[in-house]
Amino acid sequence: MTDVTRAEAALAAGASFIVTPNINLDVIRVVRAHGIPVMPGALTPTEIWTAANAGADFVKVFPASAVGPRYFRELRGPFAQIPFMASGGVNLENAAEFINFGVDALGIGGGLIPKSNDEFEQCAALAHQLLEVALKARDSR
């Protein structure tokens, strides 16, 4: 949701959470007023602080693959209390590493969706594999 109109439409349709690619303070305010989680996208320390200060339930660091898992270890120093979601380029191969370096949640799109209709049944199996990897990594932290 990049603007309030879209956020309101999603809320009216029954959205149980809102994820955005950017920080729009008005969107965060509207979503929080409805009492559902909001996860705005951010990348820089200033954007991360702004999103958290505005009431983000998780700050979606996007695109996570551009900065890599180690970026989150560096962010943990000044932002120890901010819940982070890594999104953008997260997949089965790197999910555990993101969690090991301080990510609280994973946003997975392209790494979960099959490339062709013939592989659609694999989506559920991959989701289960990703969940197992994430839980194992979280338990080992």
Compact description:
With 141 residues, the protein is α/β, with parallel strands linked by helices.
Topology at a glance:
Blueprint: H1 4-12, E1 18-19, H2 25-33, E2 38-39, E3 41-42, H3 45-53, E4 59-61, H4 64-67, H5 70-76, E5 84-87, H6 95-100, E6 105-107, H7 122-140
Structure notes:
By secondary structure, the chain is α/β, with parallel strands linked by helices. The chain has one domain (4-140): Aldolase class I (TIM Barrel). It has 7 helices and 6 strands; from the N terminus they run αβαββαβααβαβα. It has helices spanning 4-12, 25-33, 45-53, 64-67, 70-76, 95-100, 122-140, and strands spanning 18-19, 38-39, 41-42, 59-61, 84-87, 105-107. A 4-stranded parallel beta sheet has the order 3-4-5-6. Strands 1-2 form a two-stranded parallel ribbon. Helix 2 links the parallel strand 1 (18-19) and strand 2 (38-39). Helix 1 runs parallel beside helix 2 (25-33). The longest helix is centred in the last third of the chain and has 19 residues, at 122-140. The protein is globular. The relative contact order is 0.11. The model has no long low-confidence stretch (mean pLDDT 93).
CATH class: Alpha Beta
Helix content bin = 40-55%
Classify the fold: give the CATH topology: TIM Barrel
Task: Report the biggest beta sheet as strand number plus sense, adding barrel if it closes.
Answer: 4 strands, parallel
Compute the number of strand runs: 6
**CATH-wise, what's the superfamily?**
Aldolase class I
- The neighbouring-strand order within the major sheet is 3-4-5-6
CATH architecture: Alpha-Beta Barrel
N-to-C span: 33 Å
Helix count from the secondary structure assignment: 7
Low-confidence stretches: none
Kindly name the structural category.
Answer: alpha/beta
